[in-house]
Design goal:
transport; 4 strands; translocation; alpha+beta; 3 helices; Protein-export protein SecB; cytoplasm
Length: about 160
């Protein structure tokens, strides 16, 4: 009976594991270079959004994933504001094969971080006295697949 319990415990240890260990803001920035003049103009912004992710192995089975969202709002030709957040998390990813680990860190983790980054950006913009900014959801699985295809096409050409 004890041998069976040990085998079950060993099998459980071999199962893939994933857990969020910590969630935090790594960097936060807001600039409104044309205030207060921008508040006296008609508000017709052109919004551009840049999104980036990066990951770093922290040792063992721990990984840091950082999602960077940068938003630039122009009113006419002038920059009304620039807001940026780096939302990060430490994740435990154990027992995953290379492809699963890559997908987890490249798509699943950024998907978990995105709502926090979006809320932080919205809060920054509102505190700057601009209208609320609610970014549309992002399909990180599709972005990950596109990046994989681009990398594979680059390898095929080399």
């Amino acid at each position: 009976m004890t041998e069976h319990a040990n085998d079950a415990a060993a099998a459980q240890n071999e199962q893939p594991q994933f857990a969020l260990q910590r969630l935090y803001v790594r960097d936060l920035s807001f600039e409104a270079p044309k205030t207060p003049e921008v508040f006296r103009q008609e508000w017709q912004p052109a919004i551009s959004v840049d999104l980036n992710t990066r990951q770093k192995e922290l040792g063992g089975d721990f990984h840091e994933v950082v999602l960077t969202l940068s938003v630039t709002a122009k009113n006419g030709e002038e920059v009304a504001f620039i807001a940026e957040v780096q939302q990060a998390g430490i994740f435990l990813a154990k027992g995953l094969d290379a492809a699963s680990l890559s997908h987890t860190l490249g798509a699943f983790c950024p998907n978990l971080l995105f709502p926090y980054a979006r809320e932080a950006l919205d809060s920054l913009v509102v505190r700057g006295s601009f209208p609320a900014l609610m970014l549309a959801p992002v399909n990180f699985d599709a972005l990950y697949a596109q990046e994989l295809a681009r990398m594979q096409a680059g390898e095929a050409q080399a």
